[in-house]
Amino acid sequence: MISRKPIYDDLPPFPRVPKTTPSDSNASPDPTPTSPSPTDRLALQVRRARLSLYSLSASAETRINDIMTRFLSLESSFTSTIASLAPDPTTNEHLMPGALYVLVSAMAGSIISRNRNILLRASVPVAVGIGAGWVVLPHTMRNVGDLVWKYEEKVPVVAANHMRFKGAVVESWRQAEVHGKLARAWADERVRVAREALQEWIRKGR
After folding, report:
1. Most buried pick, 70, 84, 95, 141, via CB within 10 A?
2. SS percent in the chain: helix, strand, coil, step 5
3. Separation of alpha carbons 157 and 174, rounded Å
4. How confident is the model at residue 2 (pLDDT cuts 50, 70, 90)?
5. Phi/psi at 88 (5° precision)
6. How far apart are CA 43 and CA 103, in angstroms?
7. How big is the CA angle at 130 (ends 124 and 135), to the nearest 5 degrees?
8. Which DSSP string do the residues of 36-64 spell out, in sequence order?
9. Which of 25-29, 41-45, 53-57, 141-145 tops mean pLDDT?
10. 19 three-class SS
11. For residue 177, what is the enclosing H or E element?
12. 140 and 85 Cβ atoms separated by less than 8 Å
């Protein structure tokens, strides 16, 4: 006996829908980390480059400003130092002819000592020039001496040697003045004695 299938098959059962709660519906999905895009990486590199360039330019500007400040300070110090060497206008001391006289004197000292040894050839022109400077430009030489002494005070050894040399020169000059006065007095006395003897001889001859 042949079994027949029913015309209408049984429908499959409906799927069960899971019950949802409010807490489950409000829950957000877990965020997934995303890598920066090429545009973001490029913008970051550009920003870093701009900051580095700005830092370098600011540092260079500061360094240039410091150099210019030191240069202007040195220029001001140099000009004020040169101006301080000039004599006071009330002294009626003129640099131009006086400097020429000093130069000619130094050249004369070089000519005088040209056949001597190297020590005299080096020292005589300098000594003659300095002596002529003190005679022709005393105020300028005094200003130069004060400037040299100001720099020598920074080196105690040089300052001490300068003071000893200056003391020796001053003492030698004083001794020379004393001996010059004694020689002049002795010469005056000899001339007086000779004049009196001549006058006495003339009286006896008459």
Report:
1. 141
2. 75, 0, 25
3. 26
4. low
5. -65, 140
6. 72
7. 125
8. PPHHHHHHHHHHHHHHHHHHHHHHHHHHH
9. 53-57
10. coil
11. helix 156-205
12. yes
- Report the distance separating Cα 84 and Cα 150, nearest Å: 13
Q: How far apart are CA 50 and CA 44, in angstroms?
A: 10
Phi/psi at 53 (5° precision) = -65, -40
Residue 6's pLDDT is 54
Q: What end-to-end distance do the CA atoms of the chain give, in Å?
A: 213
Tokens coding 197: 């003897």
Token look-up 């080096």 returns 122
Contact 87, 93 (CB under 8 A): yes
The dihedral through the CA atoms of 75, 76, 78, 83 has a sign that is positive
Structure-derived torsion over alpha carbons of residues 54, 57, 62, 67, reported in degrees to the nearest 10: 180
What angle separates helix 138-152 from helix 38-85, to the nearest 10 degrees? 140
d(CA 135, CA 141): 9
Rounded-to-integer distance, Cα 147 and Cα 80, Å: 12
CB neighbours of residue 81 within 10 Å:
12
Give residue 80's Cα distance to chain centre: 14
pTM: 0.50
d(CA 61, CA 14) in angstroms, rounded, equals 81
